[in-house]
Amino acid sequence: MSEWFSPLGALLGLVGGLGVLLVVVGVRARRMTLVERLAPALRPRDSTSGLLREMPVRSPFPVVERLLAPWAADVAHWFERLGSPRAEVRRRLDRAGSSETVDQFRARQVVWTVAGLTAGLALALLIGATRGFAVLPLLLLVVISGACGFVACDQALSRQITQREERMAAEFPTVAELLALAVTAGEAPVSALERVATTARGELSVEIGHMLAAVRAGAPIATALVDMADRTGLPSLTRFAEGVAVALERGTPLAEVLRAQAQDVREAGRRALMEAGGKKEVAMLVPVVFLILPVTVVFAVFPSFATLRIGL
């Protein structure tokens, strides 16, 4: 029993020592700056009406949240050093259509990393209990599991961005045709965009609604369109925003520009389908060559071998 527990005790002692070391380093490194000391006294009063003010989300465990908030902020700061900067994360969240803040996304990354570390630790203990403890490989397994959790959270956001952009690219030709019909009927560009945003359903109509909110706030429509294109990251939507902005500045017929944009997007979608079909054809050759063709050869050759064996 002592031989079995000695590696486990060494591993637990190592983890506990690392935890104590992190606590000591964190306590020494976390010092209040002058700005943090003066912020409560110099905080400006919010003159917004209480009816219009957003209510903060209350945690069911406020004491635990207050105790863990500084540590979560430190871990999020470490993640910013390892991963993308804060502005890039904000841009990716906007492209994904997420209402999360950067801090909430960092907290989700912390949760996924801790889940990966927990799963890696459980797997390491299981392997150590069955095959013996080797501290360095098992510790490496735990670290790799935590890194996989961190990467998986980032990949989930990337997959969400890709799926949303695919939906927007599929919706764009219909939206462009609706805008062309509304402009041809005599409506102004802003009115046509409002009509499309209220009648259509989808990711692109939501983005158009955000763009119209910026226009109502005083932004020029060309600037709002360019900001929407930058926020989504779609090349077709970028060309659409630039074309509409140029048409509004130079007075060219807007309906023709919208129809041309819709036709270009349809052609791009048709080319993408042809490319996907070509890739699928190549992928279909793998089971044909390695599965179906050998079975066909066996069925064709086996009767001849059986006949030769009977003749011999």
What CATH first level of the domain at 171-270 would be assigned? Mainly Alpha
How many whole angstroms does the radius of gyration measure?
Answer: 30 Å
Q: Which topology of the domain at 171-270 does CATH recognise?
A: Receptor-associated Protein
Give the SSE order as H and E letters.
Answer: HHHHHHHHHHH
Which architecture of the domain at 171-270 per CATH?
A: Up-down Bundle
Distance between the termini: 66 Å
Number of helices: 11
Uncertain residue ranges: none
Dominant shape: flat
Task: Give the strand content.
Answer: under 5%
What is the SS-derived class?
A: mainly alpha
- Give the overall pLDDT as a whole number: 77
InterPro entries: T2SS_GspF_dom (IPR018076)
Domain Type II secretion system protein GspF: 177-301
Pfam family, one: T2SSF
Main location: membrane
Features:
312 residues, mainly alpha, Receptor-associated Protein, 11 helices, flat, T2SS_GspF_dom, transmembrane
Would you kindly provide a written description of the structure presented here, covering whatever features stand out?
The protein has 11 helices and no strands. It is mainly α and 312 residues long. The protein has a domain at 171-270: Receptor-associated Protein. α3 (62-82) crosses α5 and α6 crosses α7 (189-199). The termini are far apart. The mean pLDDT is 77.
